[in-house]
Write a structure and sequence with these properties.
The chain is α/β, with parallel strands linked by helices. The protein folds into 3 domains: 35 residues, no CATH class; 154 residues, Alpha-Beta Horseshoe (Leucine-rich repeat, LRR (right-handed beta-alpha superhelix)); 138 residues, Leucine-rich repeat, LRR (right-handed beta-alpha superhelix) (Alpha-Beta Horseshoe), CATH 3.80.10. It contains 5 helices and 20 strands. It has a 14-stranded parallel beta sheet. A two-stranded antiparallel sheet has the order 1-2. β13, α4 and β14 form a beta-alpha-beta unit. α3 packs parallel to α4. The radius of gyration is 24 Å and the shape is globular. The protein starts with a strand and ends in an 8-residue tail after the last strand. 30% of the residues are buried. This is Disease resistance R13L4/SHOC-2-like LRR domain-containing protein. Keywords: Repeat.
Amino acid sequence: MVEVEEEETPSLRKYKSCRVHEHMQDHCLQKGEEYFFKILDNRNSHSVSLTPTLRMALHLDKEADRSYIDQLRNEKVDQLSSLILLSPQDLQRCLPSGMVWPIQLMYLSFKGCILGALPSSIGSLSFLENLDLRVSSQIIIPNVLRKLGKLVYLYLLLEFKMPNNDKLYLKSLKEIGILENFDPGQCNVADLFEMMSLRYLSTTVEGIMEDLEQIIYGMDMTSENASVLYSSIRIKNFDCYTEKRHSVFRKLLECKILRTLHMDGHLGQIPVYYNITRSLTKIVLIGSELKEEHMATLDKLPKLQVLVLQDNAFVGEKMICVKSGFKELKQLELLTLRFLETWEVEEGSMPVLSILAVKNCEFYRMN
């Protein structure tokens, strides 16, 4: 009855999603809407009323649908604990000014919506545990998240703005366990030190060495205070042409909690494998310009499951994968490697590989 999809590169979670078998879906939706949740969209706008329920999803794809938002202030929905807002249009036009949210809300998602600014009234949701702000447009976030003391899951947007160029204050969120898209340019890294329950952190650094140094320091400090924590980091436009910048990158590779790394920028070299954390499961390198001998480092990382080399991340003419290498690698992508001519894979190398992509390698010829 239930089909389970596993994560390609397990970090915090082993499973990506669960879904009901298609033959049971209609039956489960019917029973669920009777006792468990409601889905409101233009398909059932005339047949479904906002009778008491604990969980609700609103599909807002026309102006008339804002009547549902207005009804959120009705006493019939005061007991709501979960609300998902889905809108392909500007949701800002549908949200009343000074909107009073159902006070019992524990889960609130704007994922995929077009939302210009987060309503400051969100700060009144003192029971909120899960907040998803991954909207499909840049958003202005007022500094009210500090009031959400019970927040456990916070999903920020990759790019957002703060009023008056302030930094987003998160220090008071002591219960945070999952924090995604933390940006040291918009948030205070020192706030991480107060999150004693943090188990997973994902962050993006935009080419600024001082920001990366702060994140590395925060990761090291947090790993000493938290019992279980994994980290994912995306680094953009960070060329390491100087020893100082390269030393910062080497320090990052030593972080014990680092699980996935997305690096965009010149490296030229990487340290030997025993100076790299053994926890890495996924590496994406873009423009790194590594040479042939560096494959002997990558193939020794014991938990590596996904490796993507893109835009001359590898500049050797010949790539060799030895028989004892890449024991856990499941996915390999070689994309736009202009210098690659031959690729030799010894028998026994990559024994569990299931996904392979070789694209735009103009001089490569398969033997």
